[in-house]
Amino acid sequence: MQSHILRVWIPRDIEDRLKRSARTRPVVVLTGARQTGKTSTLRRLFPDRDFVSLDLPSEAEQAEKDPEAFLRRHPAPAILDEVQYAPALLRNLKAAVDASRNRYGQYLLTGSQKFTLMKGVSESLAGRADIVELETLSLAEIRAALPRTSLESAILRGGFPELHANAEIDPVAFFNSYLATYLERDVRSLTNVGSLRDFERFLRACALRSANLLNRADLARDVGIAPSTANQWLSMLEASGQVVMLEPWFSNRTKSIVKSPKLYLADTGLLCALLNIRSEDALRQSPSAGAVWETFVFAQLRHRERRAGRVGSLFFWRDRTREVDFLADLAGRVQLFEAKWTELPSDADAVNLGYVRDVLGKSKVSLAAIVCRAPNAFPLSSGFRSLPLHDLA
User: Fold this and answer.
1) Which of 153, 165, 56, 55 minimizes the C-alpha distance to 112?
2) pLDDT in tens, 90-145
3) C-alpha to C-alpha distance for 246 and 104, rounded to whole angstroms
4) Range with the lowest mean pLDDT among 99-103, 228-232, 278-282, 362-366?
5) pTM of the predicted model over 0.90
6) Which domains does the chain have, with CATH numbers?
7) DSSP secondary structure, 84-123, as one string
8) How far apart are the C-alpha atoms of 56 and 63, rounded to whole Å?
9) Within 10 A of 57 (CB to CB), how many other CB atoms are there?
10) Rounded to whole angstroms, how far apart are CA atoms 67 and 232?
């Protein structure tokens, strides 16, 4: 069960959106991986609501087998936590909500398994629910609460709120516990996972491929599982917020050159734990530092796009010989970003930016930059910009 007692409260950028949704929709569904702060955020924003967690087997059993009695015990307005454990409840929620359709904010739901949760929401609560996703903390959120946090520390600890709210928590122990809980609670509930040991090896194999083009056949072969099993497990990791896929961007010039997505771990703290990177020195010296940095930059770009209310705007660009890490498609004009683990990028780092800008046409590209660890932005002689991560927003 998620901890609700934090030494430091770290405000979330999503809070205003949640309060607005509760004023304008009957149901609000907050999804995201375990320990991203879903429960803590709702309980802080709506302290007067009745709260019940379906992490408790007795509550989940009644919610699933006798949902009408459960809803009589917990009438609106209420926060229902981890509702994926009682799929039958969502069908009864529809009737309860429709009985007072003009009452907003009746039920606030959380769930950390999108594959079960979203199926139930789409079938039972379509048109009634606002769906909001909460990822781990962004660098901006961390530094707003803890300004002295170094870039390397933010990467290494990742964005799970508890690790920043309580500096005494050992990240290694936290992630070992997180993996054990995730494997035991979420993975074991899926019938297609026969061996937790194989699944953990699969997760580590995904970590080794973070920021790389996804080759499902190679991934399956390295772990010793069937390709169909690899596809199922990837879907499960994606639905539970552990990995994120980034699709290639297509234009008429590049159509059908690359169809595979790139694979990223959602959080660099978990990524570093899976790669056994335990310290800032180990991170700086790691051959995976570039991939970890690209994974971190992608997380900040996702946060930027969510704050701006944009959905489906991030891609990567690739043809047979060249790649640009990130392309943001903003109403027909694009921004191009290369992630480089360096404090002093050179014109050589911007070669692919120049190539893609020429392919797309300069008038279509509103910004092209190297996102790096430089403390301040500065122009490169090639006409591109070096951009520190805190300027990305």
Assistant:
1) 55
2) 888 988 898 887 899 999 999 987 766 777 777 778 888 998 999 999 999 999 99
3) 35
4) 99-103
5) yes
6) 15-133 (3.40.50.300), 139-242+268-286 (no CATH)
7) GG-HHHHHHHHHHHHTTTT--S-EEEEES-HHHHHHHHHH
8) 11
9) 9
10) 30
